[in-house]
Design a protein that fits this description.
Layout: H1 3-15, H2 21-38, H3 61-91, H4 97-113, H5 135-146, H6 150-162, H7 166-170, E1 177-179, E2 184-188, E3 197-200, H8 203-216, H9 224-228, H10 241-254, H11 262-275, H12 280-287, H13 292-296, H14 303-315
Antiparallel strand pairs: 1-2, 2-3
Helix pairs in contact: 1-2, 2-4, 3-4, 6-8, 6-11
Length: 317
């Protein structure tokens, strides 16, 4: 079988898999590149087994042993090719480890479609804390948020001061907000893994939310779903997660923080808690982490930390 035939068969198999459309498109594109590389090798047909996982085949006795030996040979040959491809991606293409792992995941999925479970060990990623905003960027963002419309200011500050995921932020209902003069909290009912939690609200965020809740009360809702939704448009429609993403991105552009997302604000929130020596288990509970090891990643040095360390040493020379 040639590369084009293998790609066509894989595309048919992939279409039937319970994967998101974006994942299917990404896998197909990466496998196409892998097969292009494979066709540059000698005897490349051996790397493209001409069968799929579409049926159940039963063999007994010597025939079964012969079939198993053939499958083992195909698997070892494919694993050799994957190792070579990984090395080529790293040394010749000079791709980042994270990108190489995306290629390997797609290639592994391709061989699964041919009935082979090929070991494709991912490239180890350097341990580094998730990207968070600097103190100066946080101050700039707060200044920009102060000049935004009431709803948008509340969205940006809620994301910054609670660390909610974008989907969690979009799913908030008015009943999930509890505010008094001295304290407040959000109830997250649609957390990752369907876990619910409560998150305390800082004073600046409480004021922004209170202003928005008051303004929202004067709007006429156009749909049943919007009646309980916290975030709605001026026309009374519930805001989507995409609309919330654009609000955050707009604030980022105003603060000259390119590519700002709610996820970056979440990283910033958790990083500040961890670096204030807050108990890791408490931070995990507030952030909705199922494993405290995830929280502990935020204690790792960032690229900026490393740069400051080197600069401070050189400045003393």
């Amino acid at each position: 079988m040639d590369g084009q035939g293998a790609l066509s068969g894989y595309a048919d198999w992939l279409e039937r898999q319970p994967l998101a459309d974006r994942t299917k498109a990404a896998y197909l594109s990466l496998v196409r590149r892998y097969l292009g590389w494979v066709e540059t090798l000698d005897d490349y047909e051996a790397l493209l087994p001409d069968h799929t996982t579409g049926g159940v085949h039963i063999a007994w006795g010597p025939r079964a042993e012969t079939e198993q030996r053939r499958r083992d040979t195909e698997r070892r040959t494919a694993e050799w090719a994957v190792r070579e491809y990984k090395g080529w991606l790293l040394t010749e293409r000079r791709l980042a480890p994270r990108t190489v792992n995306q290629y390997l995941a797609a290639v592994s999925n391709f061989y699964l479609s041919r009935g082979l479970r090929v070991a494709a060990p991912p490239e180890r990623l350097p341990k580094q804390a998730p990207q968070a905003l600097s103190e100066a960027e946080v101050r700039s963002l707060r200044r920009v948020a102060a000049g935004m419309p009431t709803r948008d200011r509340a969205i940006v500050l809620t994301s910054l001061y609670t660390g909610l995921r974008r989907g969690e932020l979009a799913a908030l209902r008015t009943a999930d907000v509890a505010i008094t003069a001295r304290k407040g909290e959000l109830t997250v009912r649609a957390g990752k893994g369907t876990r619910s939690r409560t998150v305390p609200i800082a004073a600046e965020c409480r004021r922004a939310l209170a202003d928005w809740v008051e303004q929202r009360a004067g709007l006429r809702m156009r749909s049943g779903g919007a009646r309980d939704a916290l975030w709605v448009s001026r026309l009374g429609n519930q805001l989507s997660a995409r609309a919330i993403r654009e609000v955050v991105a707009r604030a980022g552009r105003g603060a000259r923080i390119e590519g700002l997302t709610a996820h970056t604000l979440r990283h910033t929130f958790v990083t500040r808690l961890v670096r204030a020596n807050t108990d890791a288990f408490l931070v995990a509970e507030i952030a909705g982490h199922s494993r405290v090891e995830t929280t502990q990643l935020y204690a790792l040095p960032t690229a900026a930390d490393k740069a400051r360390a080197v600069t401070s040493v050189l400045d003393r020379l």
